[in-house]
Amino acid sequence: MRPKIRQNFVRLPLDAAYNVRDLGGYAGDNKKPTKFHVFLRSDNPSNMTKEDIQYLKDYGVTASIDLRGRSEAEENPNPLQYEEDINFINIPFITDGIMDVRKAAVPGFHVAGFYWDLIDSHDLVRQIFDFILAQKGCVHFHCSAGKDRTGVVAMLLLGICGVAKEDIIATYQVSRTYLKDHVELHLPPELMNLNYTEPEWMEETYDFLMNKYGSFEDYFLTVGYTQNDIKKLRKRLLTK
User: 21-22 and 87-90 as β-strands: parallel, antiparallel, unpaired?
Assistant: First the structure.
């Protein structure tokens, strides 16, 4: 089904979610652009208005993945899970070493190392991408701020389509710009690091994956996907 809203947005004009962005418009393999209306990365959607929810549905969203831990998801539930025409799943994309995401605010905490642990969490990555591959409409995925766990999933999606390292880093670090006026006002000083998106964190994560696995294709093969699965994933996001 074609989305009612046909315009393409880099960042969606919602009232109560500030970091909802389309993965469309990036140059991928063979200079093919990534498609709009296929994947949306997002911050916490719990405060979205009814109009915001309808806007997402009109934009083509038919599925939503909550990457937060159980307690996070229960305290601030994703309202899309209550929509009958939205396929919803909660997959806590978090490791035993940092069950409380607030640990990332501790001075000296190696944020990129947290991302590396997520990359190496093959079972969780498999759950996320099994769900993605089973969908046909636009998939919305989010964590709390839409930058850490969401940023890693976005990196994997863009990376497997051949999007340049620089573009992957750029789309990661812009989160702070969009969240600054809405999040930092409510964060105590000791948790301010939670809103940072230093470019070197994503650069180190990209390099970690490439050095350990060789390529994004080899990474997905290691996770357990076939060449056909990878082809299907690329076809979802890349234009013909």
Answer: unpaired
Tell me the C-alpha distance between 39 and 127, whole Å. 17
Q: Environment class of residue 177 by beta-carbon count within 10 Å: exposed (0-12), middle (13-18) or buried (19+)?
A: exposed
Residue 94 has a CB neighbour count (10 Å cut-off) of 23
Question: Which CATH superfamily includes the segment(s) 21-237?
Answer: Protein tyrosine phosphatase superfamily (3.90.190.10)
Q: Over the stretch 5-48, which tens digit does the pLDDT of each residue have?
A: 989 999 999 999 999 999 999 999 999 999 999 999 999 999 99
DSSP annotation of 32 reads P
- Amino acid 210 reads M
- 16 within 8 A of 76, measured Cβ to Cβ: no
In contact, 15 and 49? CB cutoff 8 Å? yes
Are 15 and 52 in contact, with CB atoms under 8 Å apart?
yes
pTM of the model: 0.91
Side chain identity, residue 198: E
| Structural domain spans, the chain | 21-237
Handedness of CA 124, 127, 133, 138 (dihedral sign): negative
Pairing of the two strands 61-66 and 39-42: unpaired
Which residues are CB-neighbours of 177 under 8 A, at least 6 positions away? none
